[in-house]
Structure formats: C-alpha cells, structure tokens
Task: structure prediction
Amino acid sequence: MKKILTIAGSDCSGGAGVQADLKTFAAHKTYGMSVITSLTAQNTMGVTDVADLSPEFIGKQMDAVFEDIYPDAIKIGMISNEYIVKMIVKKLKEYDAKNIVIDPVMVATSGSVLMDSKAIDTLKEELLPLASIITPNMKEAGVLSGINVHTKEDMERAAKIIGESIDGVVLVKGGHLDESADDVLYLDGKVDWIKGDRVENPNTHGTGCTLSSAIAANLAKGMNVKEAFVEAKEYLTGAIKDGLDLGKGRGPLNHLY
Result:
C-alpha cells in the first residue's frame, strides 16, 4: 500500500484541510498520515479563528512520520507563517522527501486570509522549488506571479512566470473562470490546457485540498505528473457532481462517492 502524508491545517467541520486530504487518500486506496500545522475553527460559512502549532512541534510530527512510515508522496496545504514554512523545508530536505505536491492555500473558499505576507515570500523562495507540482487557483497564481489573473491568457502567463521562477511544474486551476473549468498545466517549458466540465453546484468547500491530495496519491502510485492530474481532476469532478448538500454555506464534497 502506498503511504501519503498531508502537512496542512485542520478543518473541524471536515470539508477541507487535513480531513479532506485523509478522505481523499482513503478513496484512492492509499494509507493516509497527517502533520497538522494549524487548528482552525471553521465551517461552511467561514473561518472564525486559527491557532498555529509551534514550528518545533510540527518538526517533531514530521520526524515521527518519516522515521517510521516513510511517505511515498506528500501533500502540503495551509502554512500560516514563515517559521512553519522554514521548519517544513528543513525537514523535507533532511529526509530527502519525494513527490511533493504543494497547494499554496492563501485564502479559504469563504474568503478568509490564511497566510501572512512574510510566509508567502518564504514559500516562494524556499518551499516551492522543492515541489513536484504546485496547484494555485487564479487568485493564488496572481499573488505568486505578481500579475492580475482573470482570463485564460492571464492564467498561461502566470503559469509561465511561476514555473520559470521555481523551475518546476505549475497547475493554475480555472475553477473561477466564468465560461469553463479548464486548467492550465505548465510542464517542461510548455503550456498544456486540460478541459474541465463546469458543474453547477455551489458546494465547493475543500476542492483545492481534495485535488492536490488526489494528485499526491496518484504520484505515489507511479503516474507521471500529467496522468496524476488528469485522474485527480476526474475524481474531483465526480465528488462535486455527487451533489452532497451539507451546512448553511458552501458545503463539502462527497469524497467517497
């Protein structure tokens, strides 16, 4: 069985973060493990509070995992401050981690800001270059590239800017496009558009967490980056189409549809 580690924040309502990641790993018949970076008080309507764990304790969680059940792939989500970023970078290098998928979670679906500016700078300079693939949405791609991202042309440009800056694979997600849900993959210096169906379902809490976790599970199974993403996109679309309707705000997906 392939072993996948998520390094991310906890969502007590179960729709995003570590909880969504573990459900996704289970749906892909892989063994899920978690290192929690932050505790959030949140639900489908928003985030009301965040409590960060200390970088030292996060490092100890990573030691505990890597020294016993070495992960075949790693998904990294919410990291709220620069000190946590630096600890994660240190440990990833120490253990020579492979198949790293980074979902640069900066703003929650509800609009809550989850990462401070210093953390973003450290993320760009130290963590993103370690990634096998990073999966920003359009807003996050704008922050990472320094340009406004509203159109498909903007998505291509942002993907190139980010990809060249980290010398890696970038997936800019088009879930916020009006006319489609197409995504752009920047791989080996080339742009590749992946078509996606726009599903009429307002319940999209945790979509980014779910997609990146599915990609990590697929990389662990031996798929290349493009194959891993295409399968993950199909899985995510199915989880949205299932039509689960929980909560008073933007509800979660059915990860085990």
Q: What stands out?
A: The chain has a mean pLDDT of 93.
